[in-house]
Structure of Putative molybdenum cofactor carrier protein:
Amino acid sequence: MFQRRKIIGVMGSGRDEFRERVVPLARWIAEHGYDLLTGAGEGVMRVAAEAFVAVPGRHGLSIGIIPGEVVDGVYKAPLGYPNPNIELPVLTHLPLRGVRGQEPMSRNHVNVLTAHGLVFLPGGPGTLSEASLAQSYRKPAILFGPEREFRRFPEELERTDSLERVCEWLLATVR
C-alpha cells in the first residue's frame, strides 16, 4: 500500500546561505525520513539540498519547484535552476518570484501548498511572500533565525533562534 511521505519546505534567501542554521536543519530533516522541498535556487535553497543529499542512508528526496516560462513552445528555467542537488525537479510555467511572489503566476504557491510544514530562514521579498502565503493557506510554518531578521514577516508566526525548537515543532506538527 502507498504511504504518503511528509514534505518539509525550507525557504529563505536566494543569496545568503545561513550555513550554520541550514546544514544541521537539512541533515535533521533527512535523518528523520522526510522529503525536502526548496525553490531549487541558490543560497539557502542550494545549501539545504546539498546538506540533505549528503546524509547517508536517507529515505527522502530533495524536491525543487522550478520557476520558468514557455517561450515559442520552448521551456526555459532561469539561469542556475535547478541547483545540482535537486533530485526531483518540478518544472513550472510560473515565472514570477521575489516581490511578485504572491501573484497567481508565482511558483511560491506551489512551494507553500506542497509542503506539510514550512521552515523559513531570513530572506528577501520572495521569502516574505511565501510566509504570507503560508498564512493565507493556513499551512504550518515557523521562522528560524534572529528575531530582527523577521520584522516584516506575519506576526502570528512563531519565531525562534533554536534548532531544537524547530525540530520539536516539526515533530509535533508534521505527522
Summary: The longest strand covers residues 7-11. The chain has one domain: 10-127+138-160. Residues 65 and 170 are 21 Å apart (CA to CA). The chain has a mean pLDDT of 96.
